[in-house]
Amino acid sequence: MSEIYRFIRAEKAHFTIVLLCAVLGVARSSYYAWETGEQARSVREREDLALVHEITVIHVASRRTYGVPRIHAELRRQGRLVNRKRVERLMREHAIAGHSRRTGRRSLTRADHKAAPAPDLIRRDFTAPAPGLRVVGDITYIPTIEGWLYLATWLDLATREVIGYSMADHHRADLVVDTLDMAAGLGLLENSCVIHTDRGSEYTSTQFRSRIGKSGLRQSMGRTGICFDNAAGREFLRRPQKEIGTRIWNDRASARADIFTFIKTYYNRRRLRRHPE
Questions:
Q1: How far apart (Å, rounded) are the C-alpha atoms in residues 232 and 227?
Q2: Is the same domain home to 265 and 150?
Q3: Are 71 and 17 in a shared domain?
Q4: Helix, strand, coil percent content, the chain, rounded in steps of 5
């Protein structure tokens, strides 16, 4: 019957609904009930699409670790009072899933499993007596229609300035090494500077650790699965997408341009001293 009703809706500009219903043998009341329901379904679909965008932003910000419970809790914290079953349904329909211990995915970077984790030299003290002595780094995922754009940054704990950053369509060790090279190349890292991160495979890779050693720096790592051990680095990476105001970019090039502008002309110059401790 839906096909008949859609035909009536398409032709009602040329013929009266009374005539169309009579010719096709359907009751006018049934057609009007269907049309009212169709409009309601269209509204729900648009609302669902908007909610999916919000869910995607939260999921990406969590580095794709949040599942239904935490995404639902974050939506409520932001003032979005939505039913948990609706969140679960939309995440299932759009293949948005939280991190599990057995995901079947492999990291793009080979970790150095023989090397012991670096000690935590920061211990949640996100301050520094002078620039270039203690920096924190992290990686985030920027959603674009072309696919993910990965952003790695180094934040100086004395000035709260982003002193190194790099963007790419991958998160191999090259990404964080390039970011470190930028900060070092600008002369913003002192000898024996503490380089603090989480224990991601990018930071435990032989390539990254070798670069740290050659640069005369000291590596520091938080504990596995404890996000608060690198809270300052993670907190900054929530800012670009939120403050730029774009949820999903059309392509990686436009995302790169917006993030470059945000860091260089806005955050480092205007927001710098407002960064929370």
A1: 10
A2: yes
A3: yes
A4: 50, 15, 35
Tell me the three state secondary structure of residue 35. Answer: helix
CB 138 within 8 A of CB 165: no
Q: Do residues 88 and 148 share a domain? A: no
**CA–CA dist 58, 233 (Å, integer):** 17
Query: Would you state the structure tokens that stand for residue 236, as one six-digit string?
Result: 């900054």
- Segment 7-18 shows an average pLDDT of 84
SS3 state of residue 250: coil
- Asked if residue 123 belongs to a domain, the reply is no
For 90-109, the pLDDT digits (tens) are 998 888 887 654 434 444 45
238-268 burial: b if 16+ Cβ within 10 Å, else e = ebbbeebebeebeebeebbebbeebbeeebe
pTM summary value:
0.57
Which domain, by its residues, includes 185?
134-274
In terms of domains, do 16 and 80 share one? yes
For residue 16, which of 37, 31, 38, 34 has the smallest C-alpha distance?
A: 31
